[in-house]
Amino acid sequence: MNTVKTFTPMKPSMQMLCRLLDQVTIRGLWLGAVFCLSSWSALAAAPATPAAALQKSVVDWVVQTQSVPAESVVLVPLDPRLQVKACTSPLAMDLPFASPDTIRVRCAQPAWQLYVRVAVTGRVAAAAAAPAKAEPAPVEKRQVLVAAVPLQRGMSLTEAHVRLVDVDASSMPVNVLEQVSQILHSEVVRDVRPDAPLRSQDIRPTLLVKRGQMVLMSIGQAQGFQISARVEAQQDGRYGEQIKLKNRDSGRMLTGLVKGPNQVQGL
């Protein structure tokens, strides 16, 4: 006897349920695949260890602060025994020494610091190729007179009041005195502190002859003979000044050059 198989149509409600389960299964598989891919990308992009994260941060910092390409930055490997703890705050970096090859890395939480050695390829070659800096020009020295002691206004100067020193010529005014002979028979017109350079406006010839005084006048010393006479000063005179003189015996008016205290050279 032949048995005939018959197909019994599924009810519409069962069909809808099956379709819904299929959609849920497919969507779940799709979301799972997306999650796995995202997680893998994140893991691939993130450094595997705190030490790797530290090294990457150092390279990025050197690139930014020294304006060099990342491929030229070479890090000296860390000591394998060193345990780098993960830092929960941004790493702080600086150059604690004069050389740019040692970088200090600090973490605030947890608190720690490390020193990382780096080398930038091409830096040495660039430094060698750079032209040598020109040697500074030698400083030109100049001997000038300075006050050896505090000088007060009206003081008559002698050699004991001054001394010669070597100074930078570029820092000295043009009217600074350079010879001891320039202050002889002179007096100070303003107070001068010790070690201050003496200028021509700081001194003036001392008053050596006063009007009405009898002075000694010498004549003819340059010709190999000398005549001296006592004459009366008709005006005050400082060293090097010409003044009028009078011979009391003859009444003759004369001219002389002041050469010292109550001394004149006849002209």
Task: Provide an overview of this structure.
With 267 residues, the protein is α+β, with helices and mostly antiparallel strands. It has helices spanning 12-45, 50-66, 123-129, and strands at 73-75, 92-94, 102-107, 112-120, 141-147, 162-168, 186-188, 203-205, 207-209, 214-219, 227-233, 237-238, 242-246, 253-260, 263-266. The strands form five sheets. The protein has a five-stranded mixed beta barrel. Strands 1-4-3-2 form a four-stranded antiparallel β-sheet, with helices on one face. Strand 3 and strand 4 (112-120) form a beta hairpin.
Largest sheet: 5 strands, mixed, barrel
| Series of H and E elements | HHEEEEHEEEEEEEEEEE
Distance between the termini: 176 Å
How many beta-strand elements? Answer: 15
Sheet-strand content, in percent, reads: 25-35%
Q: Provide the structure class.
A: alpha+beta
Strand order, main sheet: write it out. 10-11-13-14-15
Quaternary organisation: single chain
Overall residue-averaged pLDDT value: 80
Approximate helicity band: 10-25%
**Total number of helices:** 3
- As a whole number of angstroms, the C-alpha radius of gyration is 51 Å
Low-confidence parts lasting 5 or more residues at pLDDT below 50?
1-10, 29-47
Task: Please tell me what the overall shape is.
Answer: rod-shaped
Could you name the key traits of this structure?
single chain; 267 residues; alpha+beta; four-stranded antiparallel beta sheet; 3 helices; 15 strands; 28% strand; rod-shaped; disordered N terminus
